Amino acid sequence: MTIMEIPAFCAILVVIQLHVFPCVSFSSFVFGDSLVDAGNNDYLFTLSKADSPPYGIDFLPSGGRPTGRFTNGRTIPDIIGEDLGATSFPPPCLAPNTTSKAIHEGINYASGASGILDQTGTFFIGRLTLKEQIGHFEKSRSYMVNLMGEEKTNEFLSKAIFSITIGSNDILSYFRPSSPFSGDKIVPEVLQDHMVSNLTTQLKRLRGLGARKFVVVGVGPLGCIPYVLATRLIPEGECSIEVNSVVRGYNSKLKEGLNRLNREVGFGAVFVYANSYDVFRRMIQNYHQYGFENGDGPCCGGYFPPFVCFEGKGKTANASSSFLCSDRAKYVFWDAFHPTEAANLIVAEKLLDGDPSVCSPMNIRQLHHTPIIPIHQRS
Ligand SMILES: *[C@@H]1O[C@H](CO)[C@@H](O)[C@H](O)[C@H]1NC(C)=O
Ligand SMILES: *[C@@H]1O[C@H](CO)[C@@H](O)[C@H](O)[C@H]1NC(C)=O
Ligand SMILES: *[C@@H]1O[C@H](CO)[C@@H](O)[C@H](O)[C@H]1NC(C)=O
């Protein structure tokens, strides 16, 4: 069966047994950085990679082998997709033969080390900047249009969730001592404004390409991640106030920007702001209440630079492996930068069903169920 035939095939099934075998399924297009990369960096020449054990050790579909995800198991979009009925995870856009799958489950364009600003992540060499990620989506869309025509493509895209999880690396590189900006450092407000306006440009571009349901994830409390705690010598039990205040400033400007977009575009599209900051902050602060035993150290790799999480080859090579905690479900952080699957599960649940303090103007489950009128049906 070719791809071309699938919609017709589904339509027949729908007529015959609508309630038994629904063909409508969840699809999503994922953009962002290493928090949501599902393997794109495996295909790039880059220092930002998660292609060796123990990354992926708890990822069931791969049998515990690394997939390029920067965590031990599933990412937040993986978990949300599963809950909303996705049958498989959107494949990385750089993997061979990915585009043909687009009309089923969506595609993942995210890339570790990337940021909103083009220059972010140059230290790591290879990465897909946000602009490039959307360029790749543009190519996927042309493929869909060739296959299904403009109208069916727009209809399909109008139902899909477009999630964008980016901005952490822009802020981390702002604080990196070797940053090219460190000589004549711009003030945080200028950084935040550049981030929001560049991101807004890219969101509008996606909307022009047919995206209607957006989830834009704010930046988490970077001042509390093990990397920042160690490099900024933060006393135990505290977070970097300076880093977190730049994050909060960005998030509030982002939220305002999304409110503006919602007012401008009316019913034509919905931009959901996902407040991952407060969810993570609460979880880190009260980690015991959430079932964790460690809220500030990495499960894998050291507490100190270079923080590398890796596994030596062979069973007797302890000495050449980095530290790996014994119970991964008891740690908020998997490595010095990224949360564990256990933490991702808690955050995903909140973003799916949370109240307006977590997701506004609606949560992700409501967004998924909101009918949106595709472009061609509007005057
Ligand atoms: C990709 O598709 C081409 C032809 O369409 C095929 O020859 C090739 O084996 C496929 N590669 C993978 C990895 O599936
Ligand atoms: C994007 O950010 C850069 C700084 O990296 C800034 O100079 C530029 O004006 C911004 N572009 C837009 C469209 O906001
Ligand atoms: C490897 O580590 C295990 C447990 O940590 C220990 O029992 C064993 O002796 C170590 N082996 C070597 C070769 O160091």
TrEMBL record:
Key word DNA repair present: no
Keyword entries, A-Z: Hydrolase, Lipid degradation, Lipid metabolism, Signal
Keyword Signal set for record: yes
Domain of life: Eukaryota
Pfam family, one: Lipase_GDSL
Signal peptide (UniProt feature, chain positions): 1-25
Protein name in the entry: GDSL esterase/lipase At5g41890-like
Organism taxonomic ancestry: Eukaryota, Viridiplantae, Streptophyta, Embryophyta, Tracheophyta
Species, as recorded: Coffea arabica
Family: Belongs to the 'GDSL' lipolytic enzyme family.
